[in-house]
């Protein structure tokens, strides 16, 4: 085998070795330990008449959904921006795109039900959302595709600590926290 061929094989083996841990099977989430439909321990809505939004959804970013024409931010989490990259050794990977793709996979062809908790800084509804018993906010943090939000201290902190400890998702890479990336890349 020629030298170039051996190099290419080694490179492909290396690339597979570093990207394989990011491969998640969404069906396993719906059957595994993250199936935690209970919202009893979740933050309470600002008032007793909190809005409920449900229906088919589309993931716009890793922490932003569109349901019935309304944009809904996932409360308590902050996902990498869609343009954001993370680094594994010398390789960059689109962690923002992958976060959005993971949320898309979690909601694919499922009804999403959200309970509005508050409004975010730009006036969007910030909600706790679930589908088929999977709490989306918590799951995105637990699988390392979003961080616990700096604006809601303590919310999903245990899930973030577990993801960091296990080195899953963005925690397997070097990355800027989403709020730091936004500040450094303000347009």
Describe the model.
With 187 residues, this protein is an alpha+beta fold. It has one domain: OB fold (Dihydrolipoamide Acetyltransferase, E2P) (Beta Barrel), CATH 2.40.50.90. The protein is built from 6 helices and 10 strands. The strands form 3 sheets. A 5-stranded mixed barrel has the order 1-2-3-8-7. A two-stranded antiparallel ribbon has the order 4-10. Strands 5-6 form a two-stranded antiparallel sheet. Strand 8 and strand 9 form a beta hairpin. The termini are far apart. About 24% of the residues have low confidence.
Q: Please tell me what the overall shape is.
A: globular
The CATH class designation is Mainly Beta
Q: Indicate the CATH topology.
A: OB fold (Dihydrolipoamide Acetyltransferase, E2P)
Write the CATH architecture name.
Beta Barrel
- Using DSSP, what is the number of strands? 10
> How far is the first residue's CA from the last residue's CA?
49 Å
> So how many helices?
6
Q: What's the alpha carbon Rg, rounded to whole Å?
A: 18 Å
Main beta sheet strand tally, sense and closure:
5 strands, mixed, barrel
Strand content: 25-35%
Helix/strand class? alpha+beta
- Could you give the order of the helices and strands? HHEEEEEEHEEEHEHH
**What is the count of distinct domains?**
1
Low-pLDDT ranges = 5-49
């Amino acid at each position: 085998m020629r030298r170039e061929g051996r190099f290419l094989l080694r490179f492909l083996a290396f690339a597979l070795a570093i990207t394989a841990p990011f491969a998640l099977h969404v069906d396993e989430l719906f059957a595994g330990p993250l199936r935690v439909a209970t919202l009893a321990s979740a933050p309470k809505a600002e008032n007793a008449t909190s809005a409920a939004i449900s229906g088919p959804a589309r993931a716009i970013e890793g922490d932003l959904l569109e349901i019935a024409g309304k944009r809904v931010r996932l409360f308590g989490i902050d996902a990498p921006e869609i343009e954001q990259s993370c680094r594994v050794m010398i390789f960059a990977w689109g962690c923002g795109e992958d976060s959005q793709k993971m949320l898309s996979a979690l909601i694919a062809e499922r009804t999403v039900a959200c309970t509005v908790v508050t409004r975010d800084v730009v006036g969007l509804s910030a909600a706790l959302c679930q589908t088929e018993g999977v709490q989306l906010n918590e799951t995105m943090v637990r699988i390392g595709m979003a961080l616990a939000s700096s604006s809601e201290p303590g919310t999903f902190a245990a899930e973030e600590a577990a993801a960091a400890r296990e080195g899953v998702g963005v925690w397997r890479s070097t990355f800027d926290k989403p709020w730091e990336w936004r500040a450094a890349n303000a347009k």
